[in-house]
Structures are given as structure tokens and as C-alpha cells.
Design a protein that fits this description.
single chain, alpha+beta, 4-stranded antiparallel beta sheet, 9 strands
Length: about 190
């Protein structure tokens, strides 16, 4: 090969290398410039999920709540809707319901259930069916009070000499007996 041809080839190859380098740098610059001028992606805001408010317990048909219905059947009794007591017994700012289970006759109330929301679900928080006889329930100073008859020798049926009051308190996630007291029955007839 002649010297001229070799030089021409060398100039050609050098030119190709220069062009290739220029193309490579240009491509790199384009990528870098594209990166530096690109609009940063912002995270899309996820809409906040608003929890569905729980229904007011006073609007519910508690006689048809599964736990109450099962408890009433177990006692062979029925819910007395007009005797339901509504009060916040758990301290969560929502009313709970004290649901007496009636005998439907002369035996009075056979037991009671306390129904309220726990963890967003309506539940029976307490069910009581004492064996002492008719039970009465009340709320006093925000505390559940169960009243039971205490019969002495010679007492007439339905007229016990004393009443045992059981006070319940909400501790953690359950009702516990806070205290008990026995008092003279103010409705007991005088003894003969």
C-alpha cells in the first residue's frame, strides 16, 4: 500500500473515531440533560378513607341482635324493649344498652344483657342470669347496678327481706364486679 493510501485510511479512521466519540458524547449529554430537565414525579395522594359511622344503638332493634336473641332463647324469655336502659357504661362516649330479658309473666326479669360497640362491632359485653330470682338492673352514677333478692326464713315469695346490689365497672375490655352491698328491702311488708 502506498504511503498516501495509508495516510488517507488513517485520516478516515481518525475521522470515524472522532465522529463516533462526538455521537457518544452527544447521546450521553442528551440523556443527562433529559434527566436534569425532566419534571420530577410527585407521589399521587391517596384519598383518605373515612370510616363509616356506627349506627346509634338507640335506633337498633336489639331484640333481633344475634347474641341477645340467643340469650333470651336460652332463658326461655323475651326482650322487653320498653325496659331497655341506654347509658355510656364503657366510657367510650357512646351509649351502651342494658337489655332486660323478661319472663313474660309473674317471674319478672330472668336476666339481662349489656350490648355495646367494641372494636367497631356490636357485641354482648355482659350477660347475666342469676339464680336468686327476679333481677332488676339500673344505672347509677354511670355504673351498672344489678339488684337481686335475698330471702330470709319466713319471707313471702316476691318479698325478700334484703336486696343485694352488685355494681359493675368496665375494666379494659370487660365488665367486672366492682363491689357488692346488701341492704334492707324498702318494699318488704312488715313481719307478723
Amino acid at each position: 500500500m502506498s504511503d498516501r493510501v495509508c495516510r488517507a485510511a488513517l485520516v478516515f479512521l481518525t475521522g470515524v473515531l472522532v465522529v463516533a466519540s462526538f455521537v457518544a458524547m452527544s447521546c450521553g449529554d442528551d440523556e443527562r440533560s433529559a434527566e436534569s430537565t425532566a419534571t420530577p414525579r410527585r407521589p399521587t395522594a391517596t384519598p383518605a378513607v373515612t370510616p363509616t359511622p356506627l349506627p346509634d344503638i338507640q335506633t337498633l332493634d336489639l331484640a333481633n341482635q344475634q347474641a341477645v336473641r340467643d340469650f333470651a332463647q336460652q332463658l326461655n324469655g323475651e326482650v322487653a324493649p320498653e325496659e331497655i336502659i341506654y347509658a355510656d357504661l364503657t366510657g367510650d362516649g357512646r351509649d351502651d344498652a342494658v337489655v332486660p330479658i323478661s319472663s313474660g309473666g309473674t317471674q319478672g326479669n330472668l336476666g339481662f344483657a349489656v350490648v355495646g360497640y367494641l372494636g367497631g362491632t356490636l357485641k354482648a359485653l355482659l350477660t347475666e342470669a342469676p339464680s336468686e330470682g327476679e333481677v332488676r338492673v339500673a344505672v347509677s352514677s354511670g355504673q351498672l347496678v344489678e339488684s337481686l333478692p335475698v330471702y330470709a326464713a319466713g319471707d313471702l315469695p316476691g318479698f325478700p327481706s334484703n336486696i343485694r346490689n352488685v355494681y359493675y365497672a368496665w375494666k379494659g375490655d370487660q365488665f367486672v364486679v366492682d363491689r357488692e352491698e346488701v341492704i334492707a328491702n324498702p318494699n318488704s311488708p312488715p313481719r307478723q
